[in-house]
Design a protein that fits this description.
Layout lengths: L10 H4 L17 H11 L3 H18 E2 L4 E2 L17 H10 L2 H20 L12 H11 L5 H13 L24 E2 L1 H17 L4 H16 L2 E2 L4 E2 L5 E2 L24 H13 L3 H13 L13 H20 L2 E3 L2 E3 L11 E6 L2 E6 L3
Antiparallel strand pairs: 1-2, 3-6, 4-5, 7-8, 9-10
Helix pairs in contact: 2-3, 2-4, 2-12, 3-4, 4-5, 5-6, 6-7, 6-8, 8-9, 8-10, 10-11, 10-12
Length: 366
């Protein structure tokens, strides 16, 4: 996976030139092989498949500590683990593609271990990105039903539901992670979108859950309230608060004030469309459209949305694909293509939908 910030690096690049002999590590997000495999379906090639398979086994063999079935915390000495990193979608996707029972067993064992550690880490003040392990429990229920994964997932979600701040949001994380977890004070829209991910997964499968839905909507409203529109830009900031501090405590600029940063990230592609469809309100989707357009995503001739780092590149494949699919809600019924597109006022959409009878061009008229 290269270095933590997604750069492609050779062995020489990974060695700390200070002479201390330390080695840089990739940010082994457990969802990355999941999305690399999915990317192969969009851009099939032997090179892409080899990269995906390599990452599946990199996660299984190296990222997972097989003494305790926890993901190691990158950037720390071996032996350090982190609840924030126990993400098993890639392991499960690898099993589905290869049939290798080692990958399935590792996914199950990490999910079980993460669930037990999470239940033991109670009471707690927040979740943030710690909640991402719950996605693995939900996915295991999809493919290995009857083993209790759904019950464990809902129990974990129940704990998460009890931990929002008074603003109705989540701080960065309650698990370890240095400055990110400092006193449960760091407040970021990005982390709230991560806390939402397993909630959205659950509501897609079990839509009749009013308790969970109420919290999911509360968080989504908070995230939307942080959105910034200016004359020539539209974006979510990286960080909006750090406890009662008016600026980041580590800031070197004496004039730095919250909110800070400019996040070019893709999580809202899923969250905001989900919200608009679920709660029949275009305001959520409009925010995403405005931010994506500001990134250059809709500019004719634009090569790509400016995505940097393992986090953004990883989620682009998943969330943009989800967005495309659910914008159209295409189904194949009685030998015919049926679509239920979601459009904003005055918006025209065009797409090619692959069907059993071949590709079909679809469009809307605003």
């Amino acid at each position: 996976m290269g270095q933590h910030h997604g750069a492609k690096a050779g062995a020489a690049d990974l060695i700390d030139q200070s002479g201390r002999g330390s080695v840089g590590e990739s940010g082994w997000e457990g969802e990355t092989p999941f999305n690399l495999v999915r990317y192969c379906y969009r851009r099939p090639s032997s090179e892409n498949w080899a990269a995906a398979l390599r990452d599946v086994y990199n996660v299984a063999d190296i990222a997972v500590d097989h003494a305790n079935f926890q993901f190691r915390m990158h950037g720390y000495d071996f032996g350090a683990i982190s609840p924030t990193m126990n993400r098993t979608l890639g392991l499960l996707q690898g099993y589905l593609e290869t049939g290798d029972p080692y990958l399935r067993e590792t996914a199950e064992h990490v999910a079980l271990s993460a669930s037990m550690v999470d239940a033991s880490n109670w009471p707690r003040r927040s979740y943030g990105r710690d909640a991402m392990f719950i996605r693995g429990l939900i996915a295991l229920e999809d493919y290995l039903p009857g083993r209790g994964w759904a019950a464990r997932a809902r129990e974990a979600l129940g704990r998460e539901l009890q931990c929002p701040t008074l603003q109705g949001a989540y701080t960065d994380q309650a698990g370890p992670g240095g400055v990110h977890a400092a006193g449960n004070m760091v407040l970021k829209p990005w982390m709230n979108l991560m806390a939402l991910e397993p909630m959205l997964d659950w509501l897609e499968r079990y839509p009749d859950d009013p308790e969970l839905e109420a919290v999911a909507r509360q968080i989504t409203e908070w995230v939307l309230a942080q959105f910034i529109r200016t004359e020539d830009d539209a974006y979510w900031p990286y960080e909006v608060a750090w406890g009662e501090n008016t600026s980041p405590p580590q800031a070197t600029d004496p004039d730095a004030k919250h909110p800070i940063g400019h996040c070019l990230f893709i999580y809202p592609a899923r969250t905001m469309l989900f919200a608009s469809r679920r709660w029949s309100d275009p305001k959520y989707l409009q925010a995403w459209e405005d931010s994506f357009r500001a990134m250059g995503g809709y500019e004719r001739g634009a090569e790509r949305v400016p995505i940097g780092g393992d986090h953004s590149a990883n989620k682009a494949s998943e969330c943009l694909s989800w967005h495309q699919l659910h914008r159209w809600q295409a189904t194949w019924e009685d030998g015919r293509l049926q679509t239920c597109p979601y459009t904003l006022p005055g918006e025209d959409l065009k797409a090619t939908v692959i069907t059993p009878d071949g590709p079909v061009e679809v469009k809307t008229e605003g």
